[in-house]
């Protein structure tokens, strides 16, 4: 029999979220802007990796901002660990932010170029922990090793790292507080294939070690099928697919899903998966 999911199993609940940016400017008489998101509902269980896919403009990055608490939705709720993120007190929100971290697409713009790796990784520790200088150096060194770098890399500046290495620094910062959920917003799309594979492997290892949950926002269906337990697909602000296993998404008849799947089809037509 299938397992009955309890609310206690849920790390994140997005309930009927809609969002729009209001009316157009006074020179544009074409009316209100269409909604960016319309009635989106999804969940992430504890320890689960949910892939959120869609082409540019589908609404996935806006949804990511709403989940991170950066942009209040026009309608609906976002519950993280059972708490409504937009009704929580300041003290409760501080605790939620500790458990909810993010890794962005552009690893260079996500850091201060004048800060060393030790300072970058140490930022969340400074905000939430009271470590001595000796303990902080030890923790930063351990985090660097956990993401495949060396403790001596702590003294390096962003320009001294490759893109893949600097993204590892960003990941080390994201796991510094042992969060419950990490939002990975196109976090491998700016890397070459070799570094993408390495980062995906690292994310899988960290997830197993820490019991992390991931929201993996991407347009890359190959990456999503590699790391995700379930995949949700957005199109023009709507959630058009939400399922587990790779077979279901391959068999979906929705045009937006088929477009994503077509990007991984073999080059020779005879080897392609028929869509019926």
UniProtKB/TrEMBL annotation:
The cellular component terms of Gene Ontology attached to this UniProt record, alphabetical and capped at eight, are: plasma membrane
Specify the ABC transporter domain's residue ranges: 12-261
Q: Which domain of life is it from?
A: Bacteria
GO molecular function list: ABC-type nickel transporter activity; ATP binding; ATP hydrolysis activity; nickel cation binding
Q: Which Pfam families match?
A: ABC_tran
Q: Which UniProt keywords apply?
A: ATP-binding, Ion transport, Nickel, Nickel transport, Nucleotide-binding, Transport
Name the PANTHER family on file.
TRANSPORT ATP-BINDING PROTEIN (PTHR43776)
What is the protein named? Nickel transport system ATP-binding protein
UniProt organism field: Paenibacillus amylolyticus
